[in-house]
Structures are given as structure tokens and as C-alpha cells.
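Session log. Operator J.P. requested a structure for one protein chain; no other inputs attached. Running the standard single-chain path with C-alpha cell output.
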Amino acid sequence: MMQLYPARAVEALEFDKITALLRLKCRTDSARERVDALNFHTRLEYVQRALLQTEEYRQLLNGSDYFPNDFTRNLQRELKLLAVPGAVLSGEQLIALQQLAICIRDMMLWFKRHQELYPNLRAVAEKVSFEKAIPEIIAAVIDENGMVRDLASRELAQIRGELASKRNELRRTFEALLRKLHKQGYLADISEGFLNGRRTVAVAAEYKRVVKGILHGESDSSRTVFIEPEEVIEINNEVFSLERAEGREVHRILAQTTSTLAQYQPQLEGYYHLSGLFDFIRAKALLAQDMNGQMPQLSPHPGLNLIKAFHPLLLLHNKKEGKATIPTNITLDRNNRILIISGPNAGGKTVTMKTVGLLQLMVQAGLLIPVDARTEMGIFKQVMIHIGDTQSIEHELSTYSAHLSDMKYFMDFANGKTLFFIDELGSGSDPNLGGAFAEAIVEELARKHALGIITTHYLNLKVMAGKVQGIFNGAMSFDEEHLEPLYQLHVGKPGSSYTFAIAQRIGLPLKIIQRAQQITDRGHFKLDKMLLQTEQQTVRLADKEKKLNQLIAENEKLKHRYEELTDKERLKQHHDTLKLQNKIKKEELDYLRDTERKFKQIIHDWKKADNKQEVISAAEKVLFRKKQIESNQAAARKADKNYEVVGGKPTVGDLVRHQTNHQIGILESLRDRRAIVRIGQMPFNVNIEEWIVVRKKQQQKEKGKKE
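Structure written below.
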């Protein structure tokens, strides 16, 4: 298990708030107990299995296939009694065990229907086998309402038969007696009642000696007495005797059934824990849904590469408030071990640090985290934190003494598998001395190969980060103009504390600010001023980069739109060409059919005609038409070779092609449907609807080469 320092590290990183949210998602006491006992594991295979189980259940929740894990009752008491010799479970308790067994049966059938899916969820139940005898044993003696069935035994069936008969006899006798007493005027207003488990008649007090029977009581006003008539005393006794016999037989059946089920107590115990485990996994998946949790890539080596990581609690809060949450990107590995975060107060340094710590705890607890799926997380054996005021009144330690006490623990036990977080390293002491100690501490942590994040205002640590290998800077952005933190971490450069800028913006007298600048060590102020200017320049560059990215995105959209339009135009041209070719082929087919018909007619006329010359002239006309078509076809092939169809509405200056004889010309003028087309040197007055726009293929190729 992971080692945490100090003991309150879970609360300091707010993991307890995560478990509180997770607990609310549980439906069973068993699942809630698992949440309370949640541990941070250091074995990669365990962490991976827990995350995969949660991821598969999350996929189930997002799909339409329902997983039958509906049993939610706490059966710990029943399972303990089942293991005790001589214990007797009630019908209701037996029904609960039956429902548990049926729930497990439905799970097993569900996994059987989904053989290739959800392997990690199936692995949870692979060692559990369903025992069909359990629900059968219970169903044989208990009905769906938890009552022992009449046919549970021959004796019970006989007793209940006699009991029903006696109760009917009692009802008839009692009702006849009521009618008789009513006619005699002896009954009170309420007529009857139940006292001491016996059915009685309510008689007016003045007639209590008239009606024979056993007096069971009287009303508060003493105006009514309740008498069990002597006519039904014997029947009541028989009913009471049969009811006791029924109770004894029911108890015997329940005891026998409980004893029979006792042999299956281990299986039922396993069913109960399996049901609770699936409810626990379901709770984790529901929490992941709320925060858009993803499964990161896992590495056995200490380190992390967070991409678009959100603080879970901040994300949920802002989501509820309808606010945006800014993600962060942080990488800690063997080359970049210690991140020094600087920047103004309330700029998000501590939140950024807590985000990393909380996400690491969540992953090693088997919880999905709100990050990009490309995020990679390693496994750490230790997490050490120093966040907030650690002053201890009980141990008479000042803030700085407590701070150094924590640092001593870090120095003693940190190693290459440690992830640490230190908020405001060196604070609470003289700036120069505190800065010196802080620098020495960072050097030692780097020497021990520990990975972690430190927030600070010390300039010497910012300078150190640029010189010592493995230590690097990060700065929280700040809008100096509006005095607003931007909550964005920029890795690779230190940040200014904006001390003088903030003082000036809030209206502190200028002479005070100037005097403070004079008092401040010149080198110190110069460096802080340089950091401030650098950071503001970075913010401006980030704004320009954002605008440039927007322009690039818009350009990509326009390019995509242009390509769509170009594809549509090409498709239209291709369609027009095919349409024209089909028209030509149709004309050829029509011509051949017409020619065939005419030749048949010529043959018929030749046989009958006296003037053969007329028939010959008609045949010549048919043959001449054929030659004309052949000529047109040759012209079409020549035109297709040298020209390609452009389509569209013709305009003056366009090359145009006749749709029948395929001659090529230049459109010189256009008026309504009539136009002047020059073919060679000769102008022709034509119908423009018979012409289509073309262009030379050779020109298009040459144009492509020039481009």
C-alpha cells in the first residue's frame, strides 16, 4: 500500500471529499464499507484491473444494455445466523436470500450472453458458481410474500384446512348471534370488538348479566362491556389451539429450511460480497460519468504526464454553477523531476498542485480521472505533502518549526518512488535565510531523485530552476491590466509575484510604492520586473496565438467548403458528359431502327414498284443519312480528344461545341436564345441551346504545369 505523510494528507488533498461523493453513489452497505476501506495500491496490475473494471461499467452505463445488479439489501445478520446451528430465519429473510441468489443467477446469464465483452467485469465473478438448489429450496416452502406455503408439509396443509373450517364456523355462529342480540336491543353502537385476541360483542352495560359469556373488558366510559358469548367459547378455543399448532409447524418448517440452507452459507456469503463489489464498481463508474472521468495510460515507473487535467471537485462545482474550468498540463519524469511554480497569490498555484496530488491518489485507488485519454500516470510508493499552516500548539511548534520538521521527514525518507508537494517552501522565516534553506532542501530532494511540485515566491529558487538539472520552472498567468488571475500554468519560465503591480492597481500611494522599490534590493527588484515583463509578453503572445489558431481553423473550414464545391462541380460536369454521351447513343440507336424500317420498306417497294429509279433514289437518301451520322461520330471523337466539357451558362468569348455535329466555335455575341458563333473564319447565327461550353485539354495541362 502507498505510504502517506502526514496522516492528514488525504484530507489536505481533499480525497475525503471524493470518497464522500463516491459513498453517495452506493446503494448497498457492502459497497459503502468498501468505500470506507479504500486503499491506494502500488501494484500496477491491481490498479490497472480496478480501472478497467470501472471503465467497462462506465461503458455499460452509457449503453443500452442493462446489467442486472439490483440486489441492495443488507444481509450480514442473516448470513451470520445461517452459520449458527439451530438458528431460524423468518420467511421474509429467506425470501431476501432467494432474491440474492436469483440476482447472481441473472448476472451469470448476462455474462454468458456477452461472452467476448467486458472481460474485466467477468473476471470479478469467474470464481463464483450459481447453485440453483438455493432458490428452489426456498421457493418450495415460501411464497413471494414471505409466507410459508400451505403445501410446505402435509401436517401444515391439514392444520390450515381445519383452521379455515373452524374460522368459517366461528364467523357464521358469531354473525347469527349478533343479529339475535341486535334484535333484542342489547348491543351498543359499535356492536363488536377484539380483546385479548378474542372476538367479542359490545353490549350495553345494563345488559351485561343478560348476555351469557366471558367478560373481557369495558369501555372507558363504562357504558359498554365486551363479552365473548358462551356459544362461541368452545369454537374460539379450538381456533386458538389450531393457530398454535400452525405456528409450531411453521416454525418447524422454517427451522428445517434454515438448516438445509446452512450448507450453502459460504456460497451465499460469496454472492453477497459479489453483489456489493459490483455495486461499488457501479458507484465508481457513476462518479466518473459526473466528472467525465477517463482511464489514463499506466506506467510501472514513477512519473506522470497530465494532459488537459481538471481538479475533480472544482470541475463539479463549476459545472453546477455553469462556469468553465481551465485544465492544466504537467509532466514529471526522470528528466524533469521537480516543478517550481511561482506567480501571484490566489493565482492557482496551490490548486494546480492539489490537482496533481488528488488525481494521483484517485488513480492508485482505482478511480477514473478527468483528464485527456492520452494522459500517462506512473505508480508511486510514497506521497508526501506540506500544504497549509502546520503550526502545532500541542507540540509548541511555530509555523516555521513545523515546516522544518516536515522537511526533515522528506529528507529522511524521500526516494525515487516518492511524489511530494510543498506549498510555499521556506515561508515563515527571514526571506534570505528561508530562501537559503529552501534552496538546500530542493537540491537534496533532487539528489534523492524524488518527483514533486513546489510553490514559492523566492527568486533564488526561480533562478535555481534554470540551472540545476531536473528542476524546472512554471508560472501561473496573471492579467495585470484587470488584476485577475488566469489560472493557466505555463511551464518553462518563472513568474512574477506582481507585488508592485497589484499595489499600484489597488490605489496604494505612489510615493509608498516608489519608496518600497528603492528599499528593495536592486537586483531582486530588477529580476522581478523582468519576470513580470516576460510574463506579460507571454500572455500577449498567447492571445495572438489563440487568434492565429482561430484564423487557421476558419481557413480550414473555407478550404473544406471549397473542396466540396469543387467536387460538386466536377460531378456535375461528369454528369453532363454522360448525359450527352447517352443522348448520342440514343440518337444512333433510333437512327439504326429507323434505317432498318426504311430498308424493309424499300425492299417491299422494290418488289412492287414499276419505276425502279424512284426506289433507288429513296435508298440513296437513307445511305446518305448513314454517312452523315458516321461523319458526326468521327467529329465527336475528334472533339472529345481535344476538348473537355465545362458546362454552365455560355458567355461571350467561350469555346462552344454543337451537340449534334460536334463542330467547335467561339461565341461572339448572345441575345436571348440566338447567338453568333464563329467557326473558323465564318460566323453563324445559331440557337444557343444546341451548344455547350468546352475548353481545350492541352491548355489545361499547360496551365497545370505553370502552376
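Operator note: The longest strand covers residues 187-195.
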